[in-house]
Amino acid sequence: MKRRYRMIAVVFLLTGSLWACGVPLEDRAFPLSVAVDYTEGKYEVYYGMPDLSAETGQDKEGENSGQKETVVCYRGRSMEETEELFLRSQEDYLDLGHVKAFLLGENLLKNKNAYEALLAYLEEKPSVAGNIYVFSCRSPREIMELEGTELDSLGTFLVRIVESRPYSRQEEQTDLQSLYNAWHNQENRPSMLQVEAEGQTLLVKGNLYERE
């Protein structure tokens, strides 16, 4: 009987994976940045969604180089619940395969159980690469409010900040795989570059961006 249950579970998982793989690209939502916090017993997840109007031919050639993003936010008692809420309210399937940066809020990082549950959720998603950069911040909401206004793409901006400074990248920057390794080995969490919003300015641990 137990073997039968296991086989049913395996078939269910494979069916879900195949269903996700069968979703056409035009029916998927690809956030480029994701910010997560944890307050009052709930996850607060922000998705930075690119404007894909160019994909439908509404933009002229070359106008998509400064692709702007919009932000959607969902709250749930688990990451799975926030994903379900996304799928219920959005037309497209959530695909995290193009995320360039994760931002983790101060409240989340202070809550060991919530933090580890987030890592478990992300690690189980094959589309989420281990080399995605991870940053910390006091208020994800303040950071994500710059999406599409002061910044065309927060994820792209943060990647450029790190990769244009190779020495600081080697010494200071953390990716998801580093967090996974520390978690599984019961080691101290690696330090992360901190992102803060100050008016129209985005501060990344001494690296300053200001809209011209």
Sequence of secondary-structure elements: HEEEEHEEHHEHHHEHEEE
Structural class from helices and strands?
alpha/beta
Strand content: 15-25%
The whole-angstrom Rg is 18 Å
Number of helices in the DSSP assignment: 8
Instruction: Please tell me what the overall shape is.
Output: globular
Query: Biggest sheet, open or closed, and with what strands and sense?
Result: 6 strands, mixed
- Through-space gap between termini: 66 Å
Ranges where pLDDT stays below 50 over 5 or more residues in a row are 1-20, 54-66
In the sheet with the most strands, the strands line up as 4-3-2-6-7-8
- What's the pLDDT, averaged over the residues? 77
Give a brief outline of the structure.
This protein is 37% helix and 25% strand. With 212 residues, it is an alpha/beta fold.
Structure description:
The chain is built from eight helices and eleven strands. With 212 residues, it is an alpha/beta fold. The strands form three sheets. The protein has a six-stranded mixed β-sheet, with helices on both faces. The chain starts with a helix and ends with a strand.
